[in-house]
């Protein structure tokens, strides 16, 4: 496996928009109300919103490439950009997605390892946390196998549909 992690910039906006929508739809569309899901995607993944996120100095997007082919992406947030915890001693792994055709190749594990290393390299960061939908048992098992544990819950709205995300964390030694 020869993967490359490349930090995104504004010139990556269109590709980031495409992979954000594609991976989210592939992962969650069949398990949600179609109308509420479409409304959510139309609101959550706009050029303007992603451009603002890319320009936020407390957030970093990374593309994962295999031989120059885009296979996935991830997003890390420092305290000011975090969606929930907002602890200056933590990093939020807000997004980590692999395109369907590249799943099952251990790319997710590689990406998680890179995200953990990037977080550990930040001075004063002692843990990583994330939110994962309570019904995404495959992802929950993946995170548990990699040392994360549940420490709370928060509501997530898919349109008007209130759902529950587990908050999970990995403490650095």
Would you kindly provide a written description of the structure presented here, covering whatever features stand out?
34% of the residues lie in helices and 34% in strands. The chain has 173 residues and is α+β, with helices and mostly antiparallel strands. It has one domain (3-131): Aminopeptidase, CATH 3.40.630.30. The protein has a seven-stranded mixed beta sheet with strand order 1-2-3-4-5-7-6, with helices on both faces. Helix 1 (13-28) packs across helix 3 (47-55). It comes from Flagellimonas meridianipacifica. Residues 3-173 form the N-acetyltransferase domain.
Give the structure's gist in a few sentences.
This protein is of the alpha+beta class. The protein has helices at 13-28, 34-44, 47-55, 107-120, 137-145; strands at residues 3-7, 59-66, 69-77, 90-98, 127-133, 149-158, 161-171. Helix 1 packs across helix 3 (47-55).
CATH class: Alpha Beta
Could you say which structural class the secondary elements and strand pairing correspond to?
alpha+beta
- Major beta sheet, specifics? 7 strands, mixed
State the end-to-end CA separation.
28 Å
The unreliable regions are none
Query: What is the architecture at the second tier of CATH?
Result: 3-Layer(aba) Sandwich
Strand order of the largest sheet: 1-2-3-4-5-7-6
Which outline best applies? globular
CATH-defined fold name: Aminopeptidase
Measured as a percent range, the helix fraction is: 25-40%
Element order: H for helix, E for strand: EHHHEEEHEHEE
Q: Give the strand tally.
A: 7
Give the averaged pLDDT, no decimals.
Answer: 95
Strand content: 25-35%
Q: Please give the radius of gyration in angstroms.
A: 15 Å
- Going by CATH, the homologous superfamily would be Gcn5-related N-acetyltransferase (GNAT)
């Amino acid at each position: 496996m020869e993967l490359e992690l490349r930090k995104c910039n504004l010139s990556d906006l269109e590709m980031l928009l495409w992979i954000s929508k594609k991976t989210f739809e592939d992962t969650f569309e069949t398990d949600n109300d179609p109308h509420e899901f479409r409304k959510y995607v139309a609101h959550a993944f706009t050029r303007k919103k992603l451009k603002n996120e890319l320009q936020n100095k407390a957030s970093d997007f990374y593309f994962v490439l295999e031989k120059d082919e885009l296979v996935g992406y991830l997003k890390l947030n420092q305290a000011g950009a975090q969606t929930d915890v907002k602890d200056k001693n933590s990093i939020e792994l807000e997004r980590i997605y692999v395109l369907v055709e590249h799943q099952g190749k251990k790319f997710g594990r590689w990406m998680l390892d890179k995200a953990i290393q990037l977080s550990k390299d930040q001075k004063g960061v002692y843990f990583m946390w994330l939110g994962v939908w309570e019904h995404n048992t495959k992802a929950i098992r993946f995170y548990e196998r990699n040392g994360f544990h549940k420490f709370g819950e928060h509501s997530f709205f898919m349109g008007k549909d209130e759902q529950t995300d587990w908050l999970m964390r990995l403490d650095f030694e």
